[in-house]
Amino acid sequence: MLTPAIHATRNETLAAELDRAINNKTKPLGSLGALETLAKQIGLIQNTRQISISDPAILVFAADHGVVAEGISAYPQDVTWQMVENFLAKGAAINVFAAQNNCALYVVDAGVNHDFGPRDGLIDRKLAKGTHNFAQQAAMSNATCTAALEAGMALAAELKGNVVGFGEMGIGNTTAAAALMHKLTGIPVAECVGAGTGLSPDGVLHKQHVIEAAVARHSGAVTPFDILATFGGLEIAMMAGAMLKAAELRKVLLIDGFIVTSALLVAARMQPAILDYCVFSHCSNEQGHQKMLNALQARPLLNLGLRLGEGTGCALALPLLHAAANFVNQMATFESAQVSEKSE
Amino acid sequence: MLTPAIHATRNETLAAELDRAINNKTKPLGSLGALETLAKQIGLIQNTRQISISDPAILVFAADHGVVAEGISAYPQDVTWQMVENFLAKGAAINVFAAQNNCALYVVDAGVNHDFGPRDGLIDRKLAKGTHNFAQQAAMSNATCTAALEAGMALAAELKGNVVGFGEMGIGNTTAAAALMHKLTGIPVAECVGAGTGLSPDGVLHKQHVIEAAVARHSGAVTPFDILATFGGLEIAMMAGAMLKAAELRKVLLIDGFIVTSALLVAARMQPAILDYCVFSHCSNEQGHQKMLNALQARPLLNLGLRLGEGTGCALALPLLHAAANFVNQMATFESAQVSEKSE
């Protein structure tokens, strides 16, 4: 597998120029808070003072998970393909929010347990009808995991825009994400698991025990790649590949909730510089997401108690990216507007 | 003065219908978090299941403050009129964010210490060239305060849209807002004052002492109206009037930061039911705003460390109001999309 070469965005000259441009705008110093941080980050990613948001797109990766056989989800597995159908019919939350914010939406079948046949609007990258049950064996073979990463890279390489959001659909994938989180951060499993789509407290405890037993069984998985292959999902691996490639291409990566962040965690353990390219759209209500964000030293833009996935947080945060670019590009400066500056 | 009659939005039948509509959408129960709460609130305000966001507008009220003579601002008073010019030239942050989000913007001269003459785009409701210095005398006479409230009511009555955001510009107005906050909530002045546009710690302490001395001097101001007249601003009083009328007309009130919330605090002490109509766009970085929101039991949508005013938080939060309406109006239901529901 060819690993993308991701460069840190650090550039002190440009950073100083961006600071100057931001501070000269007609507003008290620092008064646009997180939008100022965001504008500077986008400038560094794009390596220019002329920051822009062009042709943003959200990729939604869908796949099934063998571990559902352990009874770890509140919804039946069929919901994965039914929701893919819902995406194609434009009836899901992500369709609504992407359309509202003029964001392209691409739905990728990374490994759903269903025959869709050729369908308009569905990008077929199915590698298997779901993963194996990681309670019993590795979720993916090394070859399948590599193929998923590479398929993701190829998809990211085809995007024309400079902002890519990531979303997912896959019944059972909070269980995979919690296992990845535990293995990659060392945070106890009990603090990684949550209710997902709506488990009872007993259900959450059962999910915890399933993961703990699997972690004990697969104690040999240590590298980020092995951990991904052992506990991940086809959608998670494909996302991680797309993230790596998108960062290499110096796109802004818009990160959604718990599962998307788990894919990033894998990618960041492979290539730490990827974090320079990430904008964290929101903090999910899924227990564990805040701690995962903390482990990445990430500060999310929104905190709306969302726990829907699909990339909905990305679509909802997109207007803030536009706002960051727009204030830098469109606001007057103290000089141009002839506004007096702060008294000394 | 004719006080608007604001009715509580409580309606159990409609609330149950809205819950049903929201819960039938193809998503896990409650998974859209704050957007679900917001959708329900808008439905109750509009008294319908067919919620809509039409012709949103932001009113920016500008005025000057006599208390600047006490040296309580980091910027000179001229910045008030200079920023009004900047609004008219479309160079300020609020121009950029309102335009981005297709929101009408109206700039109101409530009492700026400057002769603008007749100007396109400026709504002239000037009642005086700023308030008196409340360190020495009441900021406004009762007659002026009443006139400001009534002018605000008349402005709100002219708006055609169903969402009104509120913004302000006025050098010195965080001092007025902090005094109002203290008088109306009982929170100690030291916890109400903040850096405003960028005071030093010494400057903040001086501001605190100015307010404490004024509060001692005007101990007779007890009713919300008297407190407003004594410590408020022309823009604050006019905003409070516009808020009261907009709520009577069952519009959604979009509340910005520290100063706008202080105007709402006055209005809410006059008519508590107004709070049913308020959407709190963000929590400002101005120290005191979080406590003011707590006093109103308000949960803001955004927390971006903004402290710019002008209604910028309202403009930035507007896409979330659209999202709330859109998911209710456009998402498929489990039935329509034939998606399986949660297992029992």
From TrEMBL, chains A, B:
<feature type="active site" description="Proton acceptor">
    <location>
        <position position="310"/>
    </location>
</feature>
<keyword id="KW-0808">Transferase</keyword>
<keyword id="KW-0328">Glycosyltransferase</keyword>
<dbReference type="InterPro" id="IPR017846">
    <property type="entry name" value="Nict_dMeBzImd_PRibTrfase_bact"/>
</dbReference>
<comment type="pathway">
    <text>Nucleoside biosynthesis; alpha-ribazole biosynthesis; alpha-ribazole from 5,6-dimethylbenzimidazole: step 1/2.</text>
</comment>
<dbReference type="InterPro" id="IPR003200">
    <property type="entry name" value="Nict_dMeBzImd_PRibTrfase"/>
</dbReference>
<comment type="similarity">
    <text>Belongs to the CobT family.</text>
</comment>
<protein>
    <recommendedName>
        <fullName>Nicotinate-nucleotide--dimethylbenzimidazole phosphoribosyltransferase</fullName>
        <ecNumber>2.4.2.21</ecNumber>
    </recommendedName>
</protein>
<dbReference type="InterPro" id="IPR023195">
    <property type="entry name" value="Nict_dMeBzImd_PRibTrfase_N"/>
</dbReference>
<keyword id="KW-0169">Cobalamin biosynthesis</keyword>
<dbReference type="InterPro" id="IPR036087">
    <property type="entry name" value="Nict_dMeBzImd_PRibTrfase_sf"/>
</dbReference>
<dbReference type="Pfam" id="PF02277">
    <property type="entry name" value="DBI_PRT"/>
</dbReference>
<dbReference type="GO" id="GO:0008939">
    <property type="term" value="F:nicotinate-nucleotide-dimethylbenzimidazole phosphoribosyltransferase activity"/>
</dbReference>
<comment type="function">
    <text>Catalyzes the synthesis of alpha-ribazole-5'-phosphate from nicotinate mononucleotide (NAMN) and 5,6-dimethylbenzimidazole (DMB).</text>
</comment>
